[in-house]
Amino acid sequence: MAAKDLWSTDPRDALRVGPDFDLASFDRNGQPGWDGDKDDGQAYLPERGEEMSELQERLFAEGREGGKRSVLLVLQGLDTAGKGGIVRHVVGMVDPQGVALASFGVPTEEERSHHYLWRIEKELPPPGRIGVFDRSHYEDVLVVRVDELVPEDVWRARYDEINAWEKELVEGGTTIIKVALMVSYAEQGERLMERLERPDKHWKFNPGDLDTRSKWPAFQEAYADVFRLTSTEDAPWYVVPADKKWYSRLAITEILTRTLEELDPQWPVADFDVEEMKKALVATGEDAPA
Amino acid sequence: MAAKDLWSTDPRDALRVGPDFDLASFDRNGQPGWDGDKDDGQAYLPERGEEMSELQERLFAEGREGGKRSVLLVLQGLDTAGKGGIVRHVVGMVDPQGVALASFGVPTEEERSHHYLWRIEKELPPPGRIGVFDRSHYEDVLVVRVDELVPEDVWRARYDEINAWEKELVEGGTTIIKVALMVSYAEQGERLMERLERPDKHWKFNPGDLDTRSKWPAFQEAYADVFRLTSTEDAPWYVVPADKKWYSRLAITEILTRTLEELDPQWPVADFDVEEMKKALVATGEDAPA
């Protein structure tokens, strides 16, 4: 059995948020669609990464020769859900030249003085590139909502606005892959404790993380609304169980790779006469002119 | 014998441009400092990459906690010298979150309407980051000189200006590693032919590459002046033979890693009471609040 066949269900189908999605009962320790175990997953990851990497290069080449398509991977998740690990271990498998990475924290005062999409638009991937957002415009209906940084009528209006904005992006040639990494409360506690126990992890811990943890129910509610209101046909959400890091990395690699496979970017056809250029090159000789 | 010991000379010493450097007699097929062969080099590369990657994370952590230090890798070289391969295979070994990558081509008209350092300064790495310039401000004394895009007195003034500007950068906490990949004329011809023979490489070929190749002596002269005039104590040039791709990747990895080892970044000390935080975390319990 080939490793690929251990995906008994396409993870895009297994993880896509549909009308019946219920965050409260979602198993954050699951491995939907993958019939193998951790070892199988870890063995398959680099192999699949190679394929993803070649597809990325084709997309990049297409973009260099006038193609307009790009991919945007939006990563959301609470502290310790593993967003950084996805960037390092999944995005890190492709050529850095093909990636446009941006991180968005709680909006700064300057950013809040602009429209909330202002800082986001500046970071959209150019044609041919895979954009990666470590947090995103969804912070404007998550932390901004939970911490009441704007009035309710303001954030309530944003779901529709985001849907319309993403639809335009998709029409412009960007394939949007929205991934929410969902870690369980217990696992988050363990990962925070690990950051406190290891001096090489202290810098990753912020006392504010406990404050955010204390608002768990409000964040779950805000996430549930995000999934309910912004998982569109143009830009669906994939909710990925994050208690098993090996699974979330494997699943996101698979989603990215299958998306690229469907985009099926082709090596651009030369816009010059190849045989003529070969002759011209041969004529330059093997020894440097003096 | 440990693989590391196959570096009989620190590549920074073996490759640094000193007063006696002579580009005309430089062996572009050499492997200065490395006593092993290609297999040894390829076996050692990922191992050394792991070490580089951990050091990069420490530097990143330092930058997150107020440290001001950064590293800037400047990559120069003629077409096919392998700059892209260095980004992919060397820079690609570290976490994308720790890298700030920028590419500079022939300056656009808008860029030429500004001071030539304008577009460069915008891309300098923030604290904690490894900046990577695929081409750089040196284009302004290379292609700009060869193609006479500005008058001679203008480009002649730039060497001193660049030295002064880099000195300021270094004083501000940036370690600058300037690497020129030097490919031979014959090898460049072969690599260009490969791009013409393989349809998946056609997009990397530009008919203008033959025009640039025809200006080989002028570019060699311009490079020789760059090395003679801008290899300073603050920011020396390393000229790397590029006919053996495995060697150039190995050497640049080694230069980067040794530089990071000397910077010796430390995990930041927690600015909060760790034991108090552990207690507070335990108090949040294992079950999500309702």
TrEMBL record, chains A, B:
Keyword Transferase: yes
Record flagged with keyword Transferase: yes
One Pfam short name: PPK2
Single annotated GO MF: polyphosphate kinase activity
Biased composition (Basic and acidic residues): 35-44
Residue ranges constituting the Polyphosphate kinase-2-related domain according to the UniProt record: 37-264
GO annotation terms (biological process): polyphosphate metabolic process
Keywords: Kinase, Transferase
InterPro entries: P-loop_NTPase (IPR027417), Polyphosphate_phosphotransfera (IPR016898), PPK2-rel_1 (IPR022300), PPK2-related (IPR022488)
NCBIfam families: PPK2_rel_1
Region (Disordered): 18-44
Protein name stated in the entry: Polyphosphate kinase 2 family protein
